[in-house]
Design a protein that fits this description.
Distance between the termini: 16 Å
Oligomer: single chain
Low-confidence stretches: 1-23
CATH class: Mainly Beta
Amino acid sequence: MSTLAPRMSGPDGRTGGTNGASRRSADNAPMTMAVASVNVPRPAGSAAPLRLAPATGPVAVGLAGFATQAEGHPVGEDPALADEVTLSHALYAYCSAHLPVWRTMRAQAGVAEPDAPIPPGAFDEHLMLDGVQESQLWEGDLLRFPDCTLVVSVPRLPDARFNETLGFVHAARMVAQSRWSGFWLSVRVPGTIAAGQAFELIPGPRDTGVVELFRARTAKMTW
């Protein structure tokens, strides 16, 4: 299997926000900005390698994220810093536009059939989001949902959990090469969030793009 993942473009300069406008997926299909799934911790004692599973209705969102956090939260960060990053790492979001390519890579690695869906929570994501990608986001951008508002914080760093949950040993390296890292969110306005809700992207100061920040934070990392 090749270790080269598709290259993503850099942040889109000073582009403005949208009100649920269409973006483009990995196969160039239009996508509306919406919540594909909201994933909460599995019951204690669950044997599955995945720590999160889809919620069946609206989930309360506080300043520190969901009321219950999965073991190992926040993923991709030094566990010793967990208390210090509680608010900036309240929720972790991943972009559904990348899923078709990840399905192909898992098939090439021999761990899944080409058409096997990637289950919700496979990236340890609290939110799977349609219609938005890391290259379109900047630190400080707002994601406004019907009943809460979240703030783009920092990208997740590649770590061994990607290898574990996606099922092949080069997954974290693929994340580093593609820069499809997902991103952490802080909570500006607490409330609730549910699958199927549309959301609005509101530009923040736009000083540092998520992809730019990912490059800086991973410059000296090796896999």
